[in-house]
Amino acid sequence: MQFINEEVERFAHDHSSRESDLFGRLQDETYATMQYPQMQVGRIEGQFLKMLVRLLDARRVLEIGMFTGYSALMMAEGLPDDGQLITCDINPKAEEIARRYFAESPHGRKIEIRMGPALETIEELTGPLDMVFIDADKQNYVNYYNACLPRLRPGGLIVADNVLWSGKVVQPDDDDTRAIVAFNERVNSDARVENVCLTVRDGIMLAWKG
Ligand SMILES: C[S@@+](CC[C@H](N)C(=O)[O-])C[C@H]1O[C@@H](n2cnc3c(N)ncnc32)[C@H](O)[C@@H]1O
């Protein structure tokens, strides 16, 4: 389900900063070779993530769910030269594509890929994070949130994608939808954060740690 009328969505897309050609090629290759290529965040959400990185003055960002690297590279563009983006995935085919595009970009050297189940990677992380982008397996959203919040600096932000799950959250009848509803409820009842659930793309939750 698209929440916004297609023409209006196109207008918003066309009036958001244009990404470099590299992103266009990454999209083309992802659509030609990968299953579920629409998992890529695309221009509007990608520019939004980059904007959040800039506004937070973030230096250390964690991404959970890299896929072929679109959102990782967008966020890396928003980081300062000495910034770091750690990104997790378990799909070696996606990793191979992401590594090639990261190598082509001057911002790619800010990105550290950690392959393996993200929960294990998070457990190994020390030191404060400025921002976390959750965009992997829905069943673990609550676990990712619980593991990341203590590692987030005060004033840091957790951003979670697909929190409206094509609108199915209002009538959950499968495990992924129920997991997403549980995540939204967990965040919304957590006194440690202020949160807003946005209807951008497939729904984006912002949880700011006070
Ligand atoms: C929605 S896609 C991420 C899209 C990406 N953010 C982008 O904009 O291109 C979700 C990714 O999470 C990865 N994933 C699924 N389960 C995972 C896990 N347990 N640990 C790490 N990554 C996982 C999948 O392999 C997939 O590439």
**Main beta-sheet annotation:** 7 strands, mixed
Percent range for helical residues? 40-55%
Q: Tell me, what's the shape? A: globular
Name the ligand types.
S-adenosylmethionine
Please state how the strands of the largest beta sheet are arranged side by side.
3-2-1-4-5-7-6
Q: Which runs of at least 5 residues are low in confidence (pLDDT < 50)?
A: none
What portion of residues belong to β-strands? 15-25%
Compact description:
With 210 residues, the chain is an alpha/beta fold. It has helices at residues 6-14, 21-33, 42-56, 70-78, 92-104, 118-124, 141-148, 175-188, and strands at 60-64, 84-89, 111-115, 129-134, 152-161, 193-198, 204-209.
Task: Please outline the helices and strands.
Blueprint: H1 6-14, H2 21-33, H3 42-56, E1 60-64, H4 70-78, E2 84-89, H5 92-104, E3 111-115, H6 118-124, E4 129-134, H7 141-148, E5 152-161, H8 175-188, E6 193-198, E7 204-209
Parallel strand pairs: 1-2, 1-4, 2-3, 4-5
Antiparallel strand pairs: 5-7, 6-7
The structure holds S-adenosylmethionine.
